[in-house]
Amino acid sequence: MKKYRFFGSLLDTQEKWLNKMASQGFRLVRVNKLLYEFEACSPNEVQYCVEFIGEKSHKNAEDYRCFLEELGYKVFYKNINLNYSIGKVRVRPWAEKGGRIATNGTTYNRELLIVEKMNDGKPFEIHTSKEDLIRYYGTLRNPWLCFLAIFGAFGFVFKSLTFGAFAVAALFPVILYQSKIAKVKKSLRYEE
Amino acid sequence: MRDNVNGGALTEVTFYILISLYQPRHGYSIMQYIEEKTQGRLALGAGTLYGALNALCEKGWISVYGQSDGRKKEFLITPLGKEIAQKELCRLKELTRFASEIIGGE
Q1: Does B31 touch chain A (CB under 8 A)?
Q2: Are A7 and A81 contained in the same domain?
Q3: A67 in reach of chain B (CB within 8 A)
Q4: Which in A96, A145, B18, B88 has the greatest CB count within 10 A?
Q5: Do A129 and B50 touch (CB under 8 A)?
């Protein structure tokens, strides 16, 4: 069965949708830009997590994918943007060393991992320690922080309302992830 | 890995990983071992385990074990790692001894 969806940066929404499909007895066999192809399975046979890896270098992303596959998970690369150009080159100042230039051959259109695990009745979580959650939320926040700074600066320099509006739009996810980080950090004061 | 500034206390995840690697293990085996030994209390997520293993390798407390071409990547604790684990055990012993004195218990 083929379904066409685009979730963009709404990782939780995508994850919920995939888990809803799994609960109805469908598991993923193939993904493309907009396409999700499913095959029938028993209801709740599998569980899904959607993870952002856009900050990773090509080498580290592949290393991480191998690690997940060795754990017995099935892994799909997924695009976060909807861009069909072939010779895409994009600069990612917020990425780690080695990942700051994204091209089609490396990390562009491979910003997300869809991770599938056989359901063993336990909740499926990728990040379980507080230190790791803080780091992960940081990687989700940083691109938006970067957009906020760039659009904010452009809006100010060019006195442009359009850029200003983009900056305001980028502000919401920054606040969202920052408040998540603050919440975890607060609990770190008295427990691990 | 966050280290306590005063005491150098290890995080629970760090300490359990060090203990589990007194014999060579691959990722899944580490996860299972820790979950089993804590009766499911400490279930490590894949991303958390991955980050911790990389950080510990960087610190030289554990290392990749043997040449694993084609086979699953295994890890083993290093002599430095054993030293760190030993120190942590002493700290915990001191803590439990003192806590038992105050709180009581068997």
Answers
A1: yes
A2: yes
A3: yes
A4: B18
A5: no
Instruction: Name residue, tokens 């089609």.
Output: A104
Asked if B31 and B21 count as a contact pair (C-beta separation under 8 A), the reply is: no
CB contacts, 8 Å: B44 with chain A: 128-129
Cβ of B27 and A131 within 8 Å?
A: no
Render pLDDT for A24-67 as a digit per residue (tens, 0 to 9): 999 999 999 999 999 999 999 999 999 999 999 999 999 999 99
Please indicate, yes or no, whether residues A113 and A168 belong to a single structural domain of this protein.
no
Which residues of chain B does A73 touch, with a Cβ-Cβ cutoff of 8 Å?
A: 46
CB contact under 8 A, A64 and B50: yes
Whether A127 sits inside 8 A of B31 (CB atoms) is: no
- Work out the percent of chain A whose per-residue pLDDT is above 90: 73
Nearest CA to A18 among A5, A139, A54?
A5
The length of chain B is 106
Give the per-residue pLDDT at A146: 92
Q: CB of B3 within 8 Å of any CB in chain A?
A: no
Q: Which of chain B's residues have a Cβ under 8 Å away from the Cβ of A59?
A: none
A72 lies in which domain range?
2-118
Residue A64 in contact with partner chain B when CB distance is under 8 A: yes
Q: Are residues A48 and A139 in the same domain?
A: no
In angstroms, the CA A22 to CA B19 distance is: 37
pLDDT single digits (tens) A179-192: 999 999 999 888 88
Check B31 against A71: CB less than 8 A apart: yes
Output the pLDDT for position A82.
Answer: 87
Compute the average pLDDT of residues B68-89: 89
Q: How many CB atoms lie within 10 A of CB B55?
A: 16
Distance (Å, whole) CA A79 – CA B31: 29
**Are A147 and A114 within 8 A, CB to CB?**
no
Query: Measured between alpha carbons, how far is B30 from A187 in angstroms, rounded to an integer?
Result: 27
